[in-house]
Amino acid sequence: MKTLIKIVLFIVVLPIAFVGVILHTMAGGMCANEVHAEIISPDKRYKAVIFQRDCGATTDFSTQISILKAKAKLPNKSGNIFIERGHPEHFPHPIRWLSNTELFIEKELSGSEFKAEHSWGRRDKLTVSYVSAGS
Length: 135
Hints:
This protein is elongated. The strands form 2 sheets. It has a 5-stranded antiparallel sheet with strand order 1-2-3-4-7, with no helix packed on it. A 4-stranded mixed sheet has the order 5-6-9-8, with no helix packed on it. It contains 1 helix and 9 strands. It is of the alpha+beta class. The chain has 2 domains: 1-30; 31-131, no CATH class.
């Protein structure tokens, strides 16, 4: 019986664990985020975080924005609201909270963005707005 358990561990469990480690590494374990700015909502419940996500020498700079609970740490993930090519130091678009539930990014969307969400959250829905075309 002990031999059977060892065989199962060796044939099934170890390969699954190994594949899990590889997938974790490929999905973000090699990436890191560098925060450039945090803008707190008026009611201090949320924050918009502007950051650079670095996934190694083969990736280009990108400006990313996530909305998080105010006390939450930025996870090692891509932005949940906005992603655009270019370094955050060269992101000329002011970001501000218009209210407790609306974030404004002063940028006209061009279609070149990798992500540009207009809402965030499930229970307490927050909206994200951008400059309208022709404004």
